[in-house]
Amino acid sequence: MNTPSPIDRSRSAELFEAAKGYFPGGVNSPVRAFKSVGGTPLFIAKGDGAQIWDEDGNQFIDFCCSWGPLIHGHNHPHVFEKIVGSLQNGASFGAPTRKENELAAFMLERLPFIDKIRFTSSGTEAVMSALRLARGATGKNKILKFEGCYHGHVDALLVKAGSGLVTFGTSSSAGVPEAFANETLVLPLNDADALTKCFETQHQDLAAVIIEPIPANNGLLLQDKSFLNLLRSLCTKYGVLLIFDEVISGFRVAFGGAAELFGITPDIVTYGKIIGGGLPVGAYGAKKEIMANVSPEGPVYQAGTLSGNPVAMAAGLAQLELCAAEDFYIKQAQRTQQFVDSINSFALAQQYPMELVCVGSIFWFSFNGKKRITAADQIDGDMTAFNFMHHYLLNVGVYFGPSGYEVGFVSSVHTDAQLAFSAEQIKAALAAFYQK
Question: Residues of 376-403 as b/e, b for ≥16 C-beta within 10 angstroms?
């Protein structure tokens, strides 16, 4: 089967060569370098609606959506208007503004499981602060995380499992002292027996458990609700704080994220991405008794020059106003499911060992047959099929994040025609790969 002709990326290639002289690897975040899929990374010039254009003038339907924040696409008129209106009054003050109150009030009125929040400048910063808060509130040191969940580039969480079922973490990045990693326990996802045994033996010094309730940074590893319910009950039984990292799932699968979708109450929750409307932002929140530990009210220190930045607050509020519309999340889930079902039906009919997994408006290409994947070690590490598909789709104007481990997103502004076109191109890419 014929494959489409390669698009011109000469301007992007020139910019990438120049960038190598400025930044490590030519990028400011590793996945952007296209090392996973190969080839020259695209340098994006502009975005509008569900489309982006690169510096060579190529046009793409965008399913990366800036890795999740752009639930209403690029340059949405309502969000744009609020950003410009706020920016006209100044970009940053290092002092309280009304915008912080407005966004906080809008969120807290709709999130019954938290009483107070603190804004930060990124999801990583929110997670880092949530861990410190958990340790400060409990007086205990150790953290439990799960293999396959990513929580930003926090030293204590850049760890992987060692040998054995319940293990102390081992560093997965240079520059992270083993002493830091040793304060983190690592378990496999969706393993109830391992989880129970860990609590029985380690709860005395366990401050918190952190989990992506919808793990979406290393594939889309949908967990059994019974596992999440067990986690909640064990945390309650042993006095361990449960942290939901909802930087991706928050305001994406429901307004209240996975906590609302599953009906499970975390003790501390972290947010990011969508609440910034495309600008840098993060937040962490909890009940008032826990948040009373945060400085200047309590002894747990956390600060930030740009925390609560008024332009980011205005953008986030504008975006959440759109998300709060009646049936917004039901419609998003339905549109995404239709897109996914169209592709999965084709793959099944052709007996291709690929399946799209989805929840809400998040989806992921699983190239591991029809096996349900709930843990990181179940992912097929051979990304040959995804890499082929990624380049094929670039050449026909469809853009996904450049890694087979990353999820895709459907925004509210993807049109039915754009979704249908993209589904047909994905089918063609699969056929080209499996019939070659």
Answer: bebbbeebebbbbbbbbbbbbbbbbbbb
Statement to judge: residues 97 and 21 lie in one domain: no
**Of these residues, 273, 392, 399, 405, which one is catalytic?**
273
Question: Where do we find the tokens 């950003």?
Answer: 83
Instruction: Give the H/E segment covering residue 429.
Output: helix 416-434
Sort 66 into a burial class: Cβ within 10 Å, 0-12 / 13-18 / 19+. middle
Q: Are 375 and 221 in contact (CB under 8 A)?
A: yes
Q: What is the CATH number of the domain that holds 63?
A: 3.90.1150.10
Whether 205 is catalytic is: no
The label of the residue with tokens 């609700």 reads 225
> How confident is the model at residue 180, as a pLDDT?
76
CATH number, position 138: 3.40.640.10
Positive or negative torsion for Cα 98, 312, 51, 359: negative
Single out the catalytic residue among 99, 140, 142, 150.
150
Residue 130, pLDDT above cutoff 90: yes
Which residues 6+ apart lie within 8 Å of 84 measured at CB?
none
Where b means 16+ CB within 10 Å and e means fewer, 335-363 reads bbbebbebbbebbeeeebebbbbbbbbbb
User: CB–CB of 348/320 below 8 Å?
Assistant: no
Residue 96 pLDDT exceeds 80: yes
Contact 255, 325 (CB under 8 A): no
Is the pTM for the entire model greater than 0.85? yes
- Are 289 and 399 within one domain? no
Both 203 and 115 in one domain: the answer is: yes
In the sheet that 116-120 helps form, which strands lie side by side, from edge to edge? 116-120, 282-286, 268-272, 241-245, 206-211, 142-146, 184-187, 167-168
- Structurally, the chain folds into a number of domains equal to 2
**Nearest to residue 72, comparing CAs of 281, 276, 258?**
276
Cα–Cα dist 116/291, whole Å: 7
Catalytic-labelled residue, pool 62, 245, 271, 399: 245
Closest residue by Cα to residue 188 from 157, 147, 144: 147
State the chain's mean pLDDT as an integer.
94
Q: Are strands 355-359 and 282-286 parallel, antiparallel or unpaired?
A: unpaired
Angle ∠(218,221,225) on CA atoms, nearest 5: 145
The token pair at 297 is 């009210």
For residue 150, indicate whether it is catalytic. Answer: yes
Q: Count the Cβ atoms, other than its own, within 10 Å of residue 163.
A: 6
